[in-house]
Amino acid sequence: SDGGKLLVVPMVGSHWLSMQKVVEKLAERGHEVVVLMPEVSWQMKTTQAYTVKTHPVSLTLEELDNAF
Known about the structure:
Largest sheet: 3 strands, parallel
Structural class: alpha/beta
Oligomer: single chain
Keywords: Transferase
GO molecular function, one term: UDP-glycosyltransferase activity
Number of strands: 3
Helix content: 25-40%
Low-confidence stretches: none
Protein name: UD18 glucuronosyltransferase
Order of helices and strands: EHEEH
Number of helices: 2
Pfam families: UDPGT
Shape: elongated
Mean pLDDT: 78
């Protein structure tokens, strides 16, 4: 099938760990994938498989650590 365009807005934490492989496979299959992720994150990393756009958040990484 032809690839389509996808916008992915993951939540911080384990949701992204599960979803990242799916997003990478979709990109490999020809989908144009844009992942919108917060500027501050523990596990969300960029990759060449998809485009990453960041958005500002009100927490620092230290505040995020303390919240959990």
